[in-house]
Amino acid sequence: MIRYRALTKTFGVQRAVADLTLDVGRGEVLALLGPNGSGKTTTLKAAAGLIRPTSGEVLLGEPGLPASAPEARRAISYLPQRVSFPDALTGQEVVEFYRALRGVRAGRTHDVLHFASLNGAGNRNVGTYSGGMVQRLGLAVAMLAEAPILLLDEPTAALDPDGLVAFYDLVDRRKHEDGTVFFTSHQLGDAERLADRFAILVEGKLVAVLSQAELHDRLSERGVMRLKLGSVPPTLHARVSALVPDADWQDQDLVIPGAAASRPAIIEVVRAAGVEILGLTTEEGRLDSFYRELVGEQQ
Predict the structure, then answer these.
(1) Which of 181, 201, 217 marks a domain boundary?
(2) N or C: which end of the chain has fewer CB within 10 A?
(3) How many domains does the chain have?
(4) Is residue 298's pLDDT more than 70?
(5) Residue-level pLDDT at 282
(6) Is the pLDDT of residue 299 over 60?
């Protein structure tokens, strides 16, 4: 549904995105991750048709129209990173304005206000809203058109708990309806919970694209098992090292890095040596640690 083909975007001498090639499929939720200034917002704006590529192209839909074409824009709803609405308007008036602008049926105003947990605040002026409520109003506007492609820039950044529930529900519903959701986030927990795939940008360059299964494998490789042992015979060190060369002995504690699949063999070797296991803990790899590792390699 979204196809980036060698997209490059520069602003003067500053290169925001460099030679980006990436596909986002129908029914897919893809999280775009990266540090500040890595080109995430530029990438989303290019798909929204708000900026034109310096070179390359972005195509939307099937068979594919340039993102800047009016026909292509009908296929998207876009939520910018920072949303703002006139303070003097009520939430309902804001939604009504965008509903009319997009030619959406009248009943949608009530539906999206209710879905974004704003039904009770719809008649209040936006100037009385908290930051989380304004963000929820932005979600309501983005949901209006029921477009097949949702582009969301840091949608959870200012959301309160009610807004998070609404956002999770929105993404789950779009997946069920075979819609496409492409979002940026600094909240790695949200990305890990929602996304089917993860694309990571560093300094405008795509450094990794991982499916849920691939991410699970990468995180599994970065897990750790810790065994607290009784009296340890000298021969056990060599037996353990033969299986896991990176094994680390810390007094009576044995630390085994790596995938969970290697752990039963280590436990069996320890038991075969007649060593008592006094304690066992495991810790799986974390997305935030893996993300920092990838980013660090590119900087």
Answers:
(1) 217
(2) C
(3) 2
(4) no
(5) 87
(6) no
d(CA 156, CA 162): 11
Q: Specify whether 36 is located in the same domain as 62.
A: yes
Confidence band for 74, pLDDT divided at 50, 70 and 90: confident
In a domain, 293, yes or no: no
Q: Which residues pair with 153 in a beta bridge?
A: 184
Looking at the fold, whether 188 and 48 belong to one and the same domain comes out as yes
Residues 213 and 228 in one domain: no
pLDDT digits (tens, 9 = 90+) for 2-20: 999 999 999 999 999 999 9
Q: Domain limits at 33?
A: 2-217
pLDDT, average across residues 226-254: 90
- pTM as predicted: 0.79
Both 132 and 268 in a single domain? no
Residues 153 and 231 grouped into a single domain:
no
